[in-house]
Amino acid sequence: MAKDYYKILEVNKNDSPETIKKSYKKLALKYHPDRADDHKKKEFEEKFKEINEAYNILGNETKRRQYDAGGTNNQFRQAQSSGRQNFSDIFEDLLRESNFGSQFGNYEEETPELDLHYGLTITFTEAAFGVEKEILIKKDVQCDSCNGTGAQDNKFDTCKKCNGHGRIEIEQRTPWGLIRRTAKCNECEGQGKIPKNKCRTCGGERILNRKEKVKIKTPKGIDNNQTLRIPNAGNAAKNKRNGDLFLTIKVTPHKIFKRERFDIYMELPITFSQAALGCEISIPTLTDNIKIKITKGTESGSVFRLRNKGIPYLDDPNYLGDQYVNIVVKTPKKLTRAQAKLFEELKKLDK
Ligand SMILES: [Zn+2]
Ligand SMILES: [Zn+2]
Predict the structure, then answer these.
(1) Is the CB of residue 67 less than 8 Å from the CB of residue 58?
(2) CATH number for domain 258-349, candidates 2.60.260.20, 2.40.50.140, 3.30.470.20, 2.60.40.10
(3) How much distance in Å is there from the Cα of 191 to the middle of ligand 1?
(4) What is the pLDDT of residues 185-210, one digit of tens each?
(5) Predicted structure pTM score
(6) Maximum CA extent, the chain
(7) Ligand 2 ion: Cβ-proximal residues, 5 Å cutoff
(8) How much distance in Å is there from the Cα of 168 to the middle of ligand 1?
(9) Of the ligands numbered here, which is closest to the C-alpha atom of 198?
(10) Residues 6+ apart with CB under 8 A from 78
(11) Phi then psi for 259, rounded to 5 degrees?
């Protein structure tokens, strides 16, 4: 009985080659034997081999077709052995992908948490129309005394380990034998040079942790609990791109308006006579005041819709939501003698 390679790769029979490749990479990372604890090594190795066996077939269009057509297991054994080259290509591919190299083998330093997460409270109107702010964030920044080199007075010696290249060649053991690749020199952290004396400000660490002002601009239309990503504004790292800053937005409620997606809602209390006789009333919008006409005989619960008086769409601020005005007719609770008399007169007219 042939193995179910689709099941092994956790994909479906009609998934695209991209999906299969993606799933394979995910699993290969997960079960890479170098990442297993000692007692799990055997299990990971088995699983890793199985995953690769499956990918050798399903990752190749012709072999996949043969497999789908129900070829024998033997055929696949052959296919598998001749597919080794294929695997090593993919493996190299995997190694090139960001960070994978650092996840096994000790040559690359561990990636510290570079992304930062903060909250930011803004007003309802700021959320609607965007706002620029300067916020204070405690984060790792490059040392400016040494420009992030870690050297006092900009004086260096050439790194002996990599002869100034910053990279060294290493061999990596895998279930398929040794793979040679280049990695960042661990002696000079890829700089190719070593400070003669350590920078006195950062002690040679190249990075300082301090409070920094970050200028941010929220987009129009952002809503409560949405998260803003500010690329590059996270922690600085040696020889690496900075992390990102993630700001989760809290929007304070508005006194008048409630928001639903990009529409806003308000209640407009009017008197019984305004409703009965009709009137013109000035009401607030997010940007100004406008007059609306209440027609004669308007009932409580009537809704006015003011087009494009709502909030700009987050993905296209040229479009705006609408403003809905919900009319609430206030029934008078206390009447003056004169009012009471008038209502008595009205009652006589009721049919
Ligand atoms: Zn070096
Ligand atoms: Zn420094």
Answers:
(1) yes
(2) 2.60.260.20
(3) 6
(4) 988 888 899 999 999 999 989 999 99
(5) 0.58
(6) 107
(7) 143, 145-146, 199, 201-202
(8) 8
(9) 2
(10) none
(11) -115, 140
